[in-house]
Amino acid sequence: MRGIAKHYGSVAALQGVDFTLARGEVMALLGENGAGKSTLVKILAGLERPDSGTIELGGHPVKLRSPGQSLQAGVAYVTQELSIVGALSVAENICLGGDSRAIWTAKRLADQVRPHLALVGLGEVDPAMPAGALSLAQQQLVEIARLLSRNARILILDEPTAALSDAEIEKVKAVVRRLAEEGRSVIYVTHRLGEVFEIADRVTIFRNGRSFPPVRVQDIDIDALIEHLLGRRLDQMFPARSGNRGEIVLSARDLIAPGLATPVSFDLRAGEMLGLAGQLGSGAAALVRAIAGVLPRERGTVLLRGRALRPDSLREAIAHGIAYCSDDRKRDGIFAVRRVVENLTAPSLSRITVGGLLSRQRERDIARRLASFFEIAAGRFASQAGKLSGGNQQKVALGKWLGTEPAVLLVEEPTRGVDVGARAEIYRHLRALADRGLAIVFASSDNQEVLGLADSVASFFRGRIVRIVPTEQLDEAALLRDVTHPAALGVGAEP
Amino acid sequence: MTTPVADAIRHLDAAAPTDARAVSRRRRIAIGAMLVAIAVLVGVAGATTPSFLTFDNLLVVIRNASITGIVALGMSFVTISGNLFALSAEELAILAACVFAWLMHAGFGLAPSLGATLLMTAAGGAVQGAIIAVGADPIITTLAFGALFRGLASLVTGNQNIELGSRAAVWIGTGRPLGVPTQSWAFILLTLAAWFALDRTRFGRQVVLTGANRAAAAASGLRVGQAALVGVTLLGIGCGLVGISAASQFGLAAANLFGGLDIDVVAAILVGGIALAGGQGSPIQAALGATFIALMQNFMLLHDLSTGVRMVVVGCLVAAATCAFHVMQQRRA
């Protein structure tokens, strides 16, 4: 691809980008949100048309005007949102959208797809089982198998691991490496820097709509990568901890809820950050939801400043000073079609109303205060929240809770789908909130995030809590063992 | 050397002026387009149809626009709260007319009849709203209640015309304070009230946020059920007002009043440009849409187009508007 340019209105998304991909290589694409990497892969996938520039595949110039043409040319694009039909069988999903005109029988279909399944490491999976019964990672692999069955020579994977747990990520990575060994080329878009070194041959970095020449991963280290990405040194990803602790504000006593098999108890002081580490389904997120009252608690109590909360009411929890931010901001974190200012004041409507009437003055004041704390540009107040970048959306989803002046902030995956730069900012803001006396509980499947941010860590494995310790007593290896196979610690590994 | 952060901030500021008014601009475009469409329609009708710009006909037009409009105002709350449409509006208005006529006929007197009829329609709306609030499908729920209301209306009237038998209510249907029909006064005042309620009150904000993203509204601690409950109740009261005014105007009520009111109101919401997905739009748009539809109906009537032709036209309009919305939404996503 040579001299590719693309403008959205007056905004230049790509400015004369060159990009090369060799046969049989894995090329990582890195860049902050809005740097242009998604635009480039969308052009290659035929989803967007470039304003200028040329594309050659195998030495021949090609025009990629639609996803169909791209697929014809051997380019396949796996988006973050999966297009698996849960009610159809694995085999039917793989053949979905294919152009075979033969009459399908379940057996013929199964025979046809088995080699493709084997290629993506799903040789053991029964092609006749419904795809919905597979794990998220397996569904992702089925989607890749579908593209392989169309003879894709270039595979574009757009953040394939964003929603997966560590063990599942390993499976996807192994498949990617195997595909490259077969002579196919893979473009791997990611936010996780570690993955680049484990999987890619070369890396192309995007910044502000321009690309840097590709670098071999052997010739670069993680600090240099971050420096390239940001264009400046990122001195510290994580803010310094401070020792100021207030009174105990939140206590959990023998808590059991759906997804939590063994009782959990802890006390949290004002100014303290508790990180819940664990993979998907480990119980870390379930604990956050159980405290919030989103998942009804089956047993045990949650005390907020010594007062017991009802086990099943998020509304009551909010009224008493709990704020809860889920891991899916599109689903329930932001109002995409409403203005930023309306998003920011949504949980604190009572603070902006006088006698049932909205006070524009109060609304602006509160929104300004929240926005300045979270560094959201006031010029964007009137834009739709859905038009912001992922990082800014997350700031809105988190920032809106400050308006209720909560005592406890509960967050799931605080930086999912957020680029490196905005991530550091969000960490800084969370720490600043803790320093102002907020008690924070966050669940995360990113171990570095837990170790870097939390004051104390609770590790989870298959619905059981492994241990709660101050962060100083843990290193990365110990935490990884906790959340993957804690049997060595004497905790039952089998559920 | 500029840093990406500085770039990003500059990018935000540069984007702000164009993007900043995006929300209100879209609404202003919709309202502006409606006003132009209404003006064009009036111009064409006035130029081509001599009987259009007569005093009597204009009275008919604005009275009809007001009847469609009052129901459309209530419907706009239902749509904006993310609950699509209540397809029982026409039936509830018929039931209101019949019950009001029956009460008057039985000699209960004006005030008690008015009060009882409005209470009944409010309750009819509230029951539907409560069912929708707990998560039932709004279309199916209201379709069922529509059948129920129509059936009740037949039972009340025994499929006969019921005469009011009293002149006490005549003013409600035919009065013209300052030369403007009572229905139109109600329409104008209710439009202002509906706009104020949605735009300036806490309740209105809850309706809008619930419609924009029900899950996020619940996660923010808002009462998401309230939007549907109060929205459909308000619609019920609107239907009550319309039913009472029709019975008063004609001096009688029957179970075959208001042919096609439901589809006219749906058309008004759609051509007014209120997003079907909820969370966007204003009652003003519904009011303008209703005016447009009433003008169009009148224009066709003056040209002696049959009921069949008029229904085909409105049906096509709704289908076209739905397609246009769908295409626009696809493009945005």
Could you write a compact summary of the structure shown?
Chain A is an alpha/beta fold and 495 residues long. Chain A is built from 17 helices and 23 strands.
Adjacency order of strands in the biggest sheet of chain B: 1-2
Give the terminus-to-terminus CA distance of chain B: 36 Å
- Largest sheet of chain A, described in full? 7 strands, mixed
Query: What profile does the largest beta sheet of chain B have?
Result: 2 strands, antiparallel
Written overview of the protein:
The complex is a heterodimer of chains A (495) and B (333). Chain A has 17 helices and 23 strands. In chain A, strands 3, 6, 7, 8, 9, 10 and 11 form a seven-stranded mixed beta sheet that branches. In chain A, strands 17-20-21-14-22-23 form a six-stranded mixed beta sheet, with helices on both faces. Chain A folds into two domains: 229 residues, Rossmann fold (3-Layer(aba) Sandwich), CATH 3.40.50; 158 residues, 3-Layer(aba) Sandwich (Rossmann fold), CATH 3.40.50. Chain A starts with a strand and ends in an 11-residue tail after the last helix. In chain A, helix 4 packs across helix 5. With 495 residues, chain A is an alpha/beta fold. Chain B has 333 residues and is an all-alpha fold. Chain B has a single domain, classed as ABC transporter involved in vitamin B12 uptake, BtuC (Orthogonal Bundle). Chain B contains 14 helices and two strands, in the order ααααααβαααααβααα. A two-stranded antiparallel ribbon of chain B has the order 1-2. The longest helix of chain B has 27 residues. Chain B starts with a helix and ends with a helix. At the A-B interface, helix 10 and strand 19 of A face helix 1, helix 2, helix 9 and helix 10 of B.
